[in-house]
Write a structure and sequence with these properties.
The protein is α+β, with helices and mostly antiparallel strands. It is built from five helices and four strands, in the order H-H-H-H-E-E-E-E-H. It has a single domain, classed as SMI1/KNR4-like. Strands 1-2-3-4 form a four-stranded antiparallel β-sheet. It comes from Streptomyces yanii.
């Protein structure tokens, strides 16, 4: 997965998936990046600058939120998020099943919800899709809920989709369910 340069085929597929949009423009994208001390991963960066800054048409169920907006997840306000701090996860984590005491979990959860990712949108009920903008998983899309978090992409299980923003949109545009990986005999994806 390349995150430094937008591939023309990925951009063409993104344009096809979203009929018309209201792009943010390069000056405003660069201003957002400078304000937060980050560079957005491609092809999302070019998508927001040239194709559309949000969309009422999915993905996810309630559409893409504009770059600087956040759905109300009940955790972090936009001004409390620190995009320049690395997103802390590299593998799925179900904190609902984690036996550690709450005082140990809360700082970790604050990092998951507040560091290194922007919210792409929501499927409702606190089931949000995040794009990681800093850290080892930069460019990956994560599904973060009140119970846990998991990365999107066939390499992680759960789905047959390609990783990253373009793969996530392509999976949606093909009308595939998000979690379409076949289960093995143990019942795991």
């Amino acid at each position: 997965m390349k995150t430094e340069h937008a591939h023309p085929a990925e951009l063409a597929a993104l344009r096809a998936a979203f009929e018309t949009g209201d792009p943010l423009g390069w000056d405003r994208v660069r201003a957002f990046e400078a304000e937060h001390g980050i560079v957005l991963p491609e092809p999302y960066r070019t998508f927001v600058a040239e194709i559309s800054d949000g969309s009422y048409v999915g993905p996810p169920d309630y559409g893409l939120v504009p770059l600087a907006e956040m759905p109300d997840d009940g955790r972090e306000a936009e001004d409390e998020r620190c995009l320049a701090e690395p997103f802390p996860l590299t593998e799925a984590w179900v904190w609902e099943d984690d036996d550690r005491p709450e005082e140990e979990l809360e700082p970790l959860l604050d990092q998951v919800f507040g560091h290194g990712s922007i919210v792409l949108g929501t499927d409702g009920c606190g089931m949000d899709w995040h794009l990681v903008v800093t850290g080892p998983h930069r460019g990956h899309v994560w599904h973060i809920t009140g119970e846990g978090a998991l990365p999107f992409g066939a390499e992680f299980g759960f789905t047959t989709g390609e990783p990253g923003f373009a793969g996530w949109v392509a999976h949606w545009a093909a009308n595939k369910p998000w979690f379409d990986a076949p289960e093995d005999e143990s019942g795991a994806a």
